[in-house]
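Need the bound structure for pyridoxal-5'-phosphate, inputs here:
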Amino acid sequence: MRKLTRSNEHFKKALSKLPLGVASNFRYWGDEQTIYVDHGKGGRMWDIDGNEYIDYRLGYGPIILGYADERVDAAAREGMNVGGVFALATEREYEVAARISKMVPAAELVRFSNSGTEAVMAAMRVARAFTGKDGHVFMEGGYHGMSNVVMWAREFDDWRPGQPEPPIEPYGEGIPAVTRQLFHLVPMNDANALEDLLRKKQNEISSFVMEPIMGNCCAIAADAQYMKDVREICDRYDVLLIIDEVKTGFRVAKGGVQELYGVKADLCTFAKAIANGYPLSVVAGREDIMRRIGDGVAHGGTFTAHGVALAAAAKTLEILDETSALADIEAYGLKLQDGLSKILAERDIAHSYTGAPALMGLFFAEQPPADYREWVHSDYEFYDTLAPALHDEGVLVEPDSREPWFLCESHNVECLAETLDKFERAVDITLPKLKAIRTGTSQ
Ligand SMILES: Cc1ncc(COP(=O)(O)O)c(C=O)c1O
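Answer from helper R.:
Posting the output first, comments after.
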């Protein structure tokens, strides 16, 4: 049985200096479940108790090649030799920008930041400047980081179809109420809802900020027609389409989710996989829009385009662009899905997959949800019970069933065989456990 003795001890110490004992609220999994990492290598991670995990969280997506990838780390070390930051530019910024433009046609011009949050903030600011309008539309179930304007949502847990929609509320305390008026929400895969809103609020709305595969909501995916409609509606109502590729970018295809759907954003944002774990993010887009930066729109930052992260990105993108890494990840993902399906089908457990193999949602129903409202009312108890059993077996997936599984190039045949073996055991532990929970006979 997996033990977290040292992690639990460290948690108590960490709590004396860090709120929740961690550096990000999402890393707190409970007083006795919070894991402290020792190190990662390839597709695996070891905690400070020495437990080994095949990791399908991969830091919520940055790790696309594998932990401690020697090619990228050597490049990052070379980036260190440059000397850090200078409050001046380096030649490598052009090199990385040119590579991004080559891989993602919508990225005609590029600016760097450090986190996904910052890149999305920049995209929204440019959109407001370009259109002269301050509001934004978002999609239910979407996530766009920690800036105030994006931190609003509808809570559907107690809602049933036919009832009035729940109110839009802040994610937590400290979000200025005044930002609420900039925030509008539509469900995914409902082009009429978007059009109805824009017909009424066209003069207030600068942009539709969305993820065609919702990286924080079980990888629920837009259908192809919806994306075509969205592109057309945004053009018709003079609203910019901002595709947030912080999770999908340089992961689901070389050209990101835009390549998968054959759609071109006006502005798009990247982070995570771009530098295999080093902190770099990007806002990119149409030249006429992006030229507003420096021509009225402020953008910058002390650590922007840091030499280490930039060198890591140059190498990561070179590998993703010039090798079969992403195709190999996809092939692994398809084999993984086949194997999981076989185990589940043998036990008559209805399931489906959402998203793309490299960013996949495992969903326990025959049909995947079309939007967040459907997910909320699905039976996700099976996943919630399965995830801790997988952790005990040494397969690290997100305990929250809204987070998809992430795959990387280092997930190899051994990982696959082990994952399937462990998954089968975890399912067989989960089934009686869930039955006991549902019949009220659990301890
Ligand atoms: C789609 C999307 N946008 C933005 C962000 C924010 O990125 P960061 O956590 O780097 O600030 C995230 C983070 O998960 C994300 O998934």
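Comments: The mean pLDDT is 96. The first helix runs from residue 5 to 15.
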